[in-house]
Design goal:
By secondary structure, the chain is mainly α. It has 40 helices and four strands. The N and C termini lie far apart (83 Å).
Length: 820
């Protein structure tokens, strides 16, 4: 009794603090917690009247429903304490109370206080029991009522009084409103009672068979019962690899000594035989469905292991060691043979056996429970602030928990599976499965009309994808492939980590020209090349990049208006007009034209897009220019809205475009230019790198064309001389160690630098190298490469000459006909 007074408080205190470990970072530690926190807060706001009126749903008998008592109690307590720490602390309170409940339940099973304390210790620190009793999930409170139901059930079996039965019935009744675990309690109770009443059952086996037949007949005859039971079994997730998790989740000591003690227990009274069968039925069922395993098999295993350790293992340690060490000879052998007689040595071995479960439980609480990462709080905050409260947002299914918990908006899968049953009528397994299938189709299918239909069906108003889900092939090369250019989707938020599109069922701008232009005139090589990239909405490159390609389409506007003026072909004008409307439609509200995977609001790509549009009547010009002005600092340009230092190369690339667009501040111009010139080495390069030198020198060459600054021209000439030294006699760069290590657009960029520097001979030699070696199939980004060539040739020789050169080049090196 003295030990009980000492050890029980220690176990309870340790249990409480271990159950705080998963929330050590003060964030919810599992996907389910976000869901159940949100359900609780909805009851806090809406009251009990928002709960389902469907009785099977309230009992958790529907395939996808939760009994509400856990959330109702949580709402009441949250109103009482109203602290953000409530959802981190209350699970540890429930979990510790569950440990105490099982302590009293084991006392009904054992006469020996040592066995009771050992059994409750083995259970309290079993990793799967810690997991289920340290999170804000209904199973936490459910296991508390499991322990109380077990305690009162065992007392009823002992006393067989009406009062004890009433206590049990009331407690179990409350349990049914708390968590579906009451079904597993019922399974376990049936198994134990079959053994407990074995003599009675043998005498009345015919009645039992009749009862089974009646139950089976009722199951088959009553459709509601059949559908309810059938869907519950369908709900049990099946995964054969579950067996691999036993040692990790049940606990090594609990499983090993529970298994070794099972034959020993089978020789005891009927109640204990029932515990063995309970344990092993749930263990094997857990091999294919984790719901049986976590942690309902551990409850009887802990009792079996404690009994076996104290009655068999510990008493046999000394004689077993004596036998093992009896044959030891040589130096120090006397000391070794005497070890079994030393109480300290025996105590150490027993301490290892007793403390191993504790250490495994503590480690499991720290390492096994991994909090889902909310990689982009900014995106969730944007949704909370900028979307209607009843908005349905398409996210990948596991993000649904985070979305609902952080924004209180709806998703497709989780809302269908859980919320519909909680607040209305629970879906069938088929309906819930269909929601999952449909959400996969919405993300992955290239049948756009099907996707539009499904989004309308589920009332989707936004699509939210983060970087992790962007890496899923069926997401990235499905919906995220065409959403950037499809007018049914309007980009509302992007930051390089997440992207949010608004779905527009009936867009104002609809596809008008689904087919490529078939042109056979003088410019056919150039036109036929571009038309291979036509999507029906825009021109998108053959690569894995962001398919909006705003800057490339802006340059094609410039090119096609030129072709219209030269040929009079109205199709070029119609296509250019469409692209201007499409660009304005897809432009973000802040004026940005993003780029990247996932996209980000890069200043450079908005500037690139606006450069060729400056001469046209473009509705988004003022928004874009205002954005560019806002990104200008005294000595750098912001690369993104959050940038606080800028980038040397980006500063160089933006300088001439800002100048050309008329939004360059004189202070910024002076400071950036001074930095670029100071960074040039005495040899003429920047950073001793061909790519960096090409980028900075070509930007300065363009700046010189716009300003006539002779100091800049001197820097361009020095860079040109350095670049000449990097080329072989035929024009190839010496650093091109393997064929096509450099895009041929880089060579055209180099020829432009030579042209501005006055080295026309070197420019022509470089262009000749391009003419001889260009291969569009070797270009990583063929559309981008050709547009870049056109751009730099336009800078050097004007649009007319640039079009002639590109037409000749593509006439010699067309894309193969089998390209899409």
């Amino acid at each position: 009794m003295k030990r009980e007074k000492l050890y029980l408080p220690l176990i309870l205190v340790a249990s409480f603090f271990v159950r705080l470990v998963p929330h050590r970072n003060l964030i919810l530690a599992a996907y389910d917690e976000y869901l159940h926190q949100d359900l609780t807060l909805r009851i806090v706001d809406g009251g009990l009247g928002i709960l389902s009126r469907d009785i099977p749903s309230l009992l958790g008998l529907r395939a996808y429903s939760y009994p509400p008592l856990f959330h109702v109690a949580g709402a009441f307590l949250y109103r009482l304490f109203h602290s953000e720490y409530f959802f981190f602390v209350i699970p540890a309170v429930y979990g510790t109370l569950a440990v105490l409940g099982f302590y009293f339940a084991y006392r009904e099973l054992f006469e020996d206080d040592r066995k009771v304390l050992l059994a409750v210790s083995l259970l309290a620190f079993a990793p799967n029991f810690i997991y289920r009793t340290s999170l804000y999930i209904p199973e936490n409170m459910g296991l508390l009522f499991f322990s109380l139901s077990m305690l009162l059930g065992l007392r009823f079996l002992k006393k067989k009084t009406l009062s004890s039965f009433i206590l049990f019935a009331v407690t179990f009744g409350i349990y049914t409103l708390t968590h579906r675990g009451w079904i597993f309690f019922a399974f376990a109770a049936v198994i134990v009672l079959l053994f407990y009443f074995e003599p009675f059952i043998r005498r009345n086996i015919h009645y039992l068979i009749l009862l089974v037949l009646l139950v089976l007949g009722g199951y088959l005859a009553v459709p509601q019962v059949k559908s309810t039971v059938g869907e519950l079994f369908l709900r049990l997730q099946r995964s054969e690899v579950s067996f691999l998790g036993y040692f990790k989740w049940v606990g090594v000591v609990q499983l090993v000594f529970g298994a070794l003690g099972s034959p020993y227990y089978l020789k005891k009274d009927p109640l204990r035989r029932g515990l063995v069968v309970w344990a092993w039925v749930f263990l094997f069922a857990g091999g294919i469905s984790f719901r049986f395993r976590d942690p309902y098999a551990t409850i009887p295993l802990a009792a079996i292991a404690a009994d076996y350790l104290l009655e068999v293992v510990f008493p046999s340690i000394r004689p077993t060691l004596k036998k093992i060490l009896a044959g030891v000879r040589g130096l120090g052998s006397g000391f070794v043979r005497a070890l079994p007689e030393k109480r300290a040595f025996l105590g150490f071995i027993m301490a290892v056996l007793l403390l191993t479960p504790v250490f495994q439980g503590v480690y499991g609480a720290y390492a096994y429970i991994e909090a889902p990462s909310i990689t982009d709080k900014e995106a969730y905050e944007w949704i909370s602030l900028n979307t209607p409260e009843d908005a349905t947002i398409l996210v990948w299914w596991d993000m649904g928990y985070l979305l609902i918990g952080n924004t209180h908006r709806k998703d497709v899968v989780v809302w269908k599976k859980v919320y519909q049953g909680f607040f209305g009528e629970a879906p069938t397994v088929k309906e819930a499965g269909q929601a999952y299938t449909d959400h996969v189709l919405m993300f992955s299918s290239d049948q756009k009309s099907l996707v539009y239909y499904l989004m309308r069906k589920y009332n989707v108003s936004y699509v939210f994808v983060d970087r992790k889900r962007y890496s899923y092939g069926l997401v990235r090369y499905g919906l995220m492939e065409y959403a950037p250019y499809d007018t049914h989707f309007k980009l509302e938020f992007c930051n390089g980590g997440s992207v949010i599109y608004r779905f527009i069922p009936e867009p104002e701008l609809r596809m008008e020209q689904p087919f490529p232009i078939e042109y056979s005139g003088n410019y056919s090589p150039l036109v036929n090349f571009f038309e291979k990239f036509w999507t029906g909405y825009n021109y998108a490159d053959f690569d894995t990049g962001y398919k909006a390609n705003f800057n490339l389409n802006a340059w094609i506007v410039d090119l096609y208006y030129y072709l219209y003026n030269e040929t009079g072909d109205e199709r070029f004008k119609a296509r250019a007009d469409w692209l201007l409307r499409w660009l304005e439609y897809k432009q973000m509200d802040n004026g940005a034209f993003p780029w990247g995977v996932p996209p980000n609001d890069f200043t450079l790509y908005t500037a690139y897009t606006m450069e060729p549009l400056k001469k046209f009547q473009f509705g988004g010009t003022e928004k874009a220019l205002n954005l560019l002005r806002s990104r200008e600092r005294e000595d750098y340009f912001m690369t993104t809205p959050k940038d606080k230092s800028g980038s040397f190369v980006v500063n160089a690339l933006l300088l001439p475009i800002y100048k050309e667009l008329g939004v360059l501040n004189t202070t910024t111009e002076k400071n950036v230019l001074e930095e670029l010139l100071n960074e040039q080495s005495g040899k003429g390069d920047w950073k001793d790198n061909v790519g960096t030198t090409l980028a900075v020198a070509s930007a300065l060459a363009r700046y010189y064309q716009l300003t006539g600054n002779e100091t800049v021209l001197s820097a361009v000439r020095k860079a040109a001389e350095w670049l000449m030294d990097q080329q072989e006699e035929d024009g190839k760069l010496k650093s091109e160690e393997y064929y096509y290590a450099y895009s041929r657009a880089s060579y055209v960029q180099m020829a432009y630098i030579y042209h501005v520097a006055g080295l026309e001979g070197q420019a022509q030699k470089t262009l000749q190298f391009v003419l001889e070696t260009f291969d569009p199939t070797r270009e990583a980004h063929p559309l981008d490469a050709v547009v870049s060539m056109y751009r730099y040739l336009s800078y050097a020789y004007g649009r007319e000459r640039a079009v002639e050169l590109m037409t000749s080049l593509l006439g010699l090196h067309p894309l193969p006909d089998f390209f899409p």
